[in-house]
Known about the structure:
Elements: H1 2-9, H2 45-48, E1 69-75, H3 78-91, H4 101-121, E2 125-131, H5 132-137, H6 139-150, H7 156-161
Parallel strand pairs: 1-2
Amino acid sequence: MMMKMLEAGGLDVLTDSLREADADNPKGYYEFERVKQLEDDKAWLPEAEGKVVKIISQLLHNLPSDYDYNVVFMRRRMGEILASQERMLLRRGEETGKVPDDKLSALFRQHLERVKTWLHEQPNFDVIYVSYNSVLETPRDEAKRIDAFLQESLDVQRMAEVVDPTLYRQRT
């Protein structure tokens, strides 16, 4: 959702379109596969300069310190994250429930706290934390907040218009 919003606002996104839309994400994934190899492959970073790139929190610490980063860090209710992941695994025919939700939730919360602390300590990272749920409830307000953070004169109205509440399926 956020990648689609930023694109609608007028920013260039870096994606390879390899992962196609599916039942779990009918609007597409906006991913760039080389990001997954960020620890060992940074050769693509010059191509990403000035563009929006989707990077999961576990990989942020692999970004080199010789660039400056504006991070729009999406947050979501833990129960919704777990439900969404379980639904995706079930659709793929993969096993679920290997780790109890309470333990998984605690581990993920610890990870998020470590990442938040790390980001705060990085002089080349500016971060805005955006609630997935707030975007769904007040998309225009959140788009304005993101525009102010990025200082890009984005098309806030178009950003808000791409938010699709019908895709909010895993609620807690």
